[in-house]
């Protein structure tokens, strides 16, 4: 399952929106991860809540009604879609927050600021992106025009500094290596003391190394729980939890659902499961 899909706790019955995703230009790979462009049509009188276990990165978002720089949401993030709309989003790299934010990155956690308050992302840019999307918000061709405008603005933040490159590598290691289950493993891999690692991640992304590992576990759990035959006890062991109850508490604390409740939403779509991960 794609990393973004694991983070997006989309209800399988939610058909109110479509999502397009694009890679960023190669020269921006140290600064940004990908574009995502949702378009939605929610019938009158209805709402479509979207819930996300966000990655440890800031987000640039220009929509038909707002433009914002988002900090990281350490808990459960998301938004509620209504009516018709679209958005052009950029998932940044961990290094990028400090290069775009007007103040300390931790101050942005659980917050957003107007994108126009960020140097180089003014009203003219926002209106140009909207003009590029206006002819057809579902068209890949118009998406390309909007992406080009945002990429040009992002290039003004290059090159990424050495500390930023290091924090990118650390976060990538935690996200991509399921064998990393403890903070000391990160310290050993990068030759850092735990104190130095703590200071680095707090300064650049406003989060602890322990949070990074916990969030990766939750992403992996959300992906595995959508698969037929997932045994909760096996999943807990694979993710380094002491027992099934520990996984259940952690998952419910983050998402508001037990693993069994979350997995149950996919049974009607994927068919009956051979195992019933309850709790």
Outline the fold blueprint.
Layout lengths: L2 H5 L9 E7 L8 E10 L6 E5 L6 E5 L3 E4 L6 E5 L2 E9 L3 H5 L11 E3 L8 H11 L6 H15 L7 H15 L6 H8 L3 H12 L3 H16 L7 H7 L5 H12 L3 H6 L2 H4 L9
Antiparallel strand pairs: 1-2, 2-7, 3-6, 4-5, 4-7, 5-8
Molecular structure report:
The chain is of the alpha+beta class and 279 residues long. It is built from 12 helices and 8 strands. The chain has helices at 3-7, 96-100, 123-133, 140-154, 162-176, 183-190, 194-205, 209-224, 232-238, 244-255, 259-264, 267-270, and strands at 17-23, 32-41, 48-52, 59-63, 67-70, 77-81, 84-92, 112-114. Strands 1-2-7-4-5-8 form a 6-stranded antiparallel beta sheet, with helices on one face. The protein is globular and about 55 Å long. Mean pLDDT is 91; it is low at 269-279.
User: What is the percent of helical residues?
Assistant: 40-55%
Low-confidence sequence ranges: 269-279
Element-by-element helix/strand order: HEEEEEEEHEHHHHHHHHHH
Beta-strand percent range? 15-25%
State Rg.
19 Å
Supply the number of helical segments.
12
Class per helix and strand makeup? alpha+beta
Tally of extended strands? 8
**Largest sheet properties:** 6 strands, antiparallel
Lateral strand order in the biggest sheet? 1-2-7-4-5-8
What overall geometry do the principal axes of the alpha carbons give? globular
Nearest-integer average pLDDT: 91
Tell me the distance between the termini.
23 Å
């Amino acid at each position: 399952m794609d990393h973004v899909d694991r983070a997006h706790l989309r209800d399988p019955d939610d058909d109110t929106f479509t999502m397009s995703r694009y890679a960023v230009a190669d020269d921006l790979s140290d600064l940004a991860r990908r574009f995502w462009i949702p378009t939605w049509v929610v019938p009158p009188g209805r709402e479509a809540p979207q819930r996300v276990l966000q990655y440890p990165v800031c987000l640039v978002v220009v929509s038909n009604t707002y433009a914002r720089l988002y900090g990281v949401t350490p808990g459960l993030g998301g938004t509620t879609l209504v009516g018709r709309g679209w958005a052009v989003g950029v998932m940044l790299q961990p290094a990028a927050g400090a290069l775009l934010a007007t103040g300390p990155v931790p101050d942005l956690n659980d917050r957003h600021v107007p994108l126009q308050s960020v140097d180089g992302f003014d009203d003219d840019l926002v209106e140009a992106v909207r003009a590029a999307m206006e002819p057809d918000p579902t068209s890949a061709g118009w998406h390309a025009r909007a992406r080009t405008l945002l990429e040009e603005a992002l290039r003004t933040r290059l090159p990424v500094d050495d500390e930023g490159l290091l924090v990118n590598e650390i976060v990538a290691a935690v996200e991509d290596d399921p064998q990393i289950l403890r903070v000391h493993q990160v310290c050993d891999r990068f030759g850092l003391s735990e104190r130095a690692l703590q200071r680095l991640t707090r300064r650049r992304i406003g989060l602890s190394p322990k949070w990074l590992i916990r969030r990766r576990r939750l992403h992996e759990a959300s992906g595995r729980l959508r698969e037929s035959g997932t045994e909760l006890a096996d999943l807990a062991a694979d993710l380094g939890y002491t027992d099934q109850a520990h996984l259940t508490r952690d998952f419910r604390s983050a998402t508001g659902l037990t693993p069994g409740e979350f997995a149950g939403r996919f049974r009607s779509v994927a068919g009956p499961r051979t195992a019933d991960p309850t709790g």
